[in-house]
Amino acid sequence: MISISPTYLMYYIPLIISISLVFGATRHEDTQTILKHAFYTARWITGFMAIIFVILLLINWMV
Amino acid sequence: MANSETVIQVDSQRIDLKNRSLAALLAWLLPGAGHFYQGRHTKGSLYLVCILTTWMLGFALGGGHVVYASWQPGDRRWHYILQAGVGAAALPALIQGNHMRKHTNKGITSKSYEPRWGGFMAPPHRPVIEDNTDEVSAWYATYGAGYEMGTWYTMIAGLLNILVIYDAYAGPLAVPISGRKKKDDDSDDNDDDNNASESAATGETNPEVNQ
Question: Which parts of the chain span the membrane according to its record (chain A) (predicted)?
């Protein structure tokens, strides 16, 4: 079903950690707030990518 | 010395941005250095670790060949513009690119060319022709998806540092306030969330507040 190795999805982990933390830190000064913002950002990006992933899988299944 | 034009208040913390231009320059040269200069050590450490780790991981994934400066026909390395966002770490590529340029005649690298520092951040030998066998295609063949991902990692690290440079220059960006967070000020459950949005609403992230 997926034409690439699932291990390639691991590339996503360091990126999501780095992007979320930096993104949160550029919007707050308090460490707890930064971590909270980073968590929300990571969750949002992951959810968005998951939706796109499912849509692409469906298209692949239909075509 | 602190003055009202450089002092801002964010998340109930008072921050002296000091010399903003110097902080921005330092932030570009080394991610987090601008924040260390301003005494914001936690954020400085976070930026240093996150951005440099991402950049170096990408560099390693691509076998050390993903960061190079070239603007030759067939090999216009626009990625470098973003990769250079991390500052000093990407600067050797400029020296290597200039060295290669001096040894390139009519789009072909001269046989006497020897890259500096064992080829560290050196551009590929010319000519580089799309859909043809050359040094770039050899790198792709050797490192596979790692070459592609390494390019992305280094570009994203450079882009993230642009946000960091802005943070060093002007302080944290304002947090957008969603309607969902605004409506229940009295709710105990959302007290923490509201603190973040309230600070943005009162303009605490804005340097003009204290002027």
Answer: 6-26, 38-62
The ranges assigned to domains in chain B are 7-60+164-210, 65-160
What is the identity of the amino acid at A58?
A: L
Report the predicted TM-score, pTM, of the whole model to 2 decimal places.
0.82
Q: Where do the domains of chain A lie?
A: 9-62
ipTM of the complex in this document = 0.88
A37 touches chain B (CB under 8 A): yes
Judged by CB atoms closer than 8 Å, whether chains meet at B10 and A21 is answered as no
- Is 60 exceeded by the pLDDT of residue B198? no
Contact criterion met (CB below 8 Å) for B32 and B43: yes
The yes-or-no verdict on residue B202 having pLDDT over 70 is: no
Nearest CA in chain A to B206: A27
